[in-house]
Amino acid sequence: MGEPGSHEFTVRDSTTVYSGAILALRLDRVEMPGGRAAEREVVSKHGAVAVVARDDRGRIALVNQYRHPVGRRLLELPAGLLDGGPEESPVEAAQRELAEEADLAAGSWRTLVDLVSSAGFCDEATRVFLAEDLRAVASAPRENEEADLQVRWLSLDDAVAAAFSGEIVNASAVAGILAAAEAVRSGVELRAPDAPWTDRPRRFVGRQ
């Protein structure tokens, strides 16, 4: 056994046991330190994007949307999957989602934070953008859960308070709101919208 931090976790074999529209489940046998192999269940998904859309009054656009797995509506950032095809970049996906969910477009885009949601069992990763210089666009047709979607505007301070109070619990929303508040407070230089994204998931798309 080598020094801690030096082991190569080689996949000995991999089997896909389920493949659906938005996720796949596979079983990997991975070589562990000491030579034994352990089975790991891995959920593979599209990547995702989310948008902190901030207007010239310092408010951000949030969507109140029903989420069936938790059985209630959640207050979230405009967001969606990277499922627009191989030619669509993450920022283009974010622009599409902002228009579809909040009827907004933005003249300024920057990368705010990158998230790996549940690294213990899933390769899902989300890039959160800060969008400013907002303008309204024509309302998009919506169906299913999105037909019931409501857009709410909160000041950034009120959104931070809602995250700390437990009113906002969606992971990308909490991370994006707190990161945006710190970016505004500190003036930190944010990355370009097309900055490299190390953990962008590609395996789910590649299996199709």
Automatic annotation (TrEMBL):
Coiled coil: none annotated. Residues 44-176 form the Nudix hydrolase domain. It comes from the Bacteria. InterPro entries: NUDIX_hydrolase-like_dom_sf, NUDIX_hydrolase_dom. SUPFAM superfamilies: Nudix (SSF55811). Transmembrane segments: none annotated. Pfam families: NUDIX. One of its GO terms (molecular function) is hydrolase activity. This is NUDIX hydrolase. Keywords: Hydrolase. It comes from Gordonia alkaliphila.
